[in-house]
Design a protein that fits this description.
The chain has 2 domains: about 140 residues, 2-Layer Sandwich (Enolase-like, domain 1), CATH 3.30.390.10; about 220 residues, Alpha-Beta Barrel (TIM Barrel), CATH 3.20.20. The protein has 11 helices and 17 strands. The chain is of the alpha/beta class and about 375 residues long. The structure holds 2-succinylbenzoate and magnesium ion.
Length: about 375
C-alpha cells in the first residue's frame, strides 16, 4: 500500500499511575508520555515513545525525546513517501541511540499502514500466531515484603500466568525466598535492572535455589561479556533486556552465551522492524522471547499486544490490563485480561482500540503539529 506522510502531530500527556512503580533505579508515580500521530489521506496512525521521565533505564527521557523528534526525526519524515512501513526504520538511522523516539514514529507508520489497508496491525506485522496473548505482571519494589506478597496474591487471583518481581541489593534473596515460601509452584522471575556486578556472583547464585524462570538483566545496561561469564555460573537462565538494542546485540549475546532468553521491547529496539528482526533471529537460534513493558498508555500497550502475537513470543510478557496502571486509559475499551491470564487479539483496523480523544485532550500538556501546508 504505502503512503506519503502529510502531517505529524506530537502529543505530550501526563498521567498519574494508580500505584507507584519502583525499580532498582528509582520510583515513578506519574508518567510523561509522548504520542506520535502520523497522518496521510485522511487517516492517522499512532505510536508511543516509551522512554521514562528521566534517563535512568537508558539514556532517553521525555524532554530529550521531544527535541529529537522535533529537531531531527519529524523534519526527516515530513513529506516522505513510504512504500512499506518497514521503511520508516530509516528515520533517524544516522543518529546515535534515541531508539525509543525513533520507535514511536516507526510504530505510528505501521499503525497507519494497517489502517489504510483496513486490517489489524497484528496482521500487517505478520503476527496472529495465537489469538490470545499470555500475560504476566511486573511488580515493583514495595515498602514491605508483606505488601509484595499481597500484591502477588491479587495478581494471581486475577489470573496472570507469571509473576515478575523487581530486585536490587538489599531486596533480593530474602524476598525471593519469602515469595517462594508463600507460592511454591508459580511461574516466578526477578528483574534487577542492572543493579549488580560480577562481584555479586555468589549472591545471584543463591537465587538458583528458588526455581526462577529467569533472572532479567542482572549486570550493566551495556554489558554482554560479563553476562556470559555469569551465565556460565548460574543454573537460572539469564534474560537480557537493557543491553539488547539491535539484532546485532542479540546475535552477540546469543553467540557468547550471555543469555538464554530475550525480552523484546518495541521502544528499546527502535520499532517493529528491529523487533521483528530480533524475534526472527532468536527463533532461528532456539531462544524464546517475550514482550517487555514500559508502563505504557493504551497506545503502546496495544502495539505490544500486536507484537506479542508473533510466533516466537512463547513466554508470558509484561503486557497487562490498563487498570493496573491507569484509573482511566486513553483508549476504549481499556485493555482487559481474561480469567485465563490472556489478552484476546482484536480485529479492528490498526492497533485495534479507539482513542478517547476527549480524555486524551484533558491529559495533554503540550502539542505541536508539523508539515501541514
Ligand atoms: O525493566 O522491564 C523493565 C518498567 C519501566 C522500566 C523498566 C522496566 C519496567 C517494567 C514494567 O518492568 C513493565 C510494565 O508493566 O510495563
Ligand atoms: Mg527489565
Amino acid at each position: 500500500m504505502g503512503f506519503q506522510i502529510e502531517q505529524i502531530c506530537l502529543h505530550w500527556l501526563e498521567m498519574p499511575l494508580v500505584h507507584f512503580f519502583e525499580t532498582s533505579f528509582g520510583r515513578t508515580t506519574r508518567r510523561r508520555i509522548i504520542l506520535v500521530e502520523v497522518s496521510s489521506g485522511g487517516a492517522s496512525g499512532w505510536g508511543e515513545v516509551t522512554c521514562g521521565e528521566h534517563p535512568h533505564y537508558n539514556e532517553e527521557w521525555t524532554e530529550g525525546a521531544w527535541l529529537i523528534l522535533r529537531d531531527y526525526l519529524v523534519p526527516e519524515a515530513c513529506g516522505s513517501r513510504l512504500e512499506t512501513p518497514a521503511e520508516a526504520a530509516r528515520f533517524g538511522a544516522r543518529l546515535r541511540g534515541h531508539r525509543m523516539a525513533r520507535g514511536g514514529l516507526e510504530a505510528a507508520c505501521w499503525d497507519l499502514e494497517a489502517r489504510l489497508r483496513g486490517e489489524p496491525l497484528w496482521k500487517t506485522l505478520g503476527g496472529g500466531a495465537r489469538r490470545e496473548i499470555p500475560c504476566g505482571v511486573s511488580i515493583g519494589i514495595q515498602d514491605t515484603p508483606a505488601q509484595l506478597i499481597g500484591k502477588i496474591r491479587a495478581e494471581l487471583e486475577a489470573g496472570y500466568q507469571r509473576i515478575k518481581i523487581k530486585i536490587k541489593p538489599g531486596w533480593d534473596v530474602h524476598i525471593v525466598e519469602a515469595v517462594r515460601r508463600e507460592f511454591p509452584d508459580i511461574l516466578l522471575m526477578a528483574d534487577a535492572n542492572s543493579a549488580y556486578t560480577l562481584a555479586d556472583t555468589d549472591r545471584l547464585k543463591a537465587l538458583d535455589e528458588f526455581g526462577l524462570m529467569m533472572i532479567e538483566q542482572p549486570l550493566a545496561h551495556d554489558d554482554i561479556i560479563d553476562h556470559s561469564l555469569l551465565q556460565e555460573k548460574l543454573n537460572t537462565p539469564i534474560c537480557l533486556d537493557e543491553c539488547i538494542r539491535t539484532r546485532h546485540h542479540a546475535r552477540q549475546a546469543i553467540e557468547l552465551g550471555a543469555c538464554r532468553i530475550i525480552n523484546i521491547k518495541l521502544g528499546r529496539v527502535g520499532g517493529f522492524t528491529e523487533a521483528k528482526a530480533i524475534h526472527d533471529l532468536c527463533q532461528s537460534r532456539g531462544i524464546p522471547v517475550w514482550c517487555g513493558g514500559m508502563l505504557e498508555s493504551g497506545v503502546g500497550r496495544a502495539h505490544n499486544i500486536a507484537l506479542a502475537s508473533l510466533e516466537n513470543f512463547t513466554l508470558p510478557g509484561d503486557v497487562s490490563a490498563s487498570k493496573r496502571y491507569w484509573t482511566r486509559d486513553i483508549i476504549q475499551p481499556p485493555v482487559e485480561v481474561t480469567p485465563r491470564g490472556t489478552i484476546v487479539l482484536r480485529d479492528e483496523p490498526g492497533f485495534g482500540y479507539a482513542l478517547d480523544m476527549d480524555f486524551l485532550a484533558s491529559v495533554r500538556v503540550r502539542q505541536e503539529t508539523f508539515c501541514a501546508k
